[in-house]
Amino acid sequence: MAPIRYTHFISKRGDVVFSLACGFGAYFLYERDHPREWTLRELVTRKVERVRTEGWFPSSSK
């Protein structure tokens, strides 16, 4: 009888949640120790506003 072989670390959904939590936690700790001029929230807000006004692919980038 062959040993049981697991293809997922936790579960299909649990692996995704675990990896996202680790990623956000690592980013938070890095940003806490290495502050920048702009926060992630400010950068995302600027990008969203630019996409709303110019679209995803502005003509200047073509």
From TrEMBL:
What's an example GO BP annotation here? Answer: protein secretion
Query: Highest taxon of the source?
Result: Eukaryota
| Listed InterPro entries | NCE101
- Tell me what this protein is called: Uncharacterized protein
Q: Which organism is it from?
A: Linnemannia gamsii
Which lineage ranks, top first, belong to the organism behind this chain?
Answer: Eukaryota, Fungi, Fungi incertae sedis, Mucoromycota, Mortierellomycotina
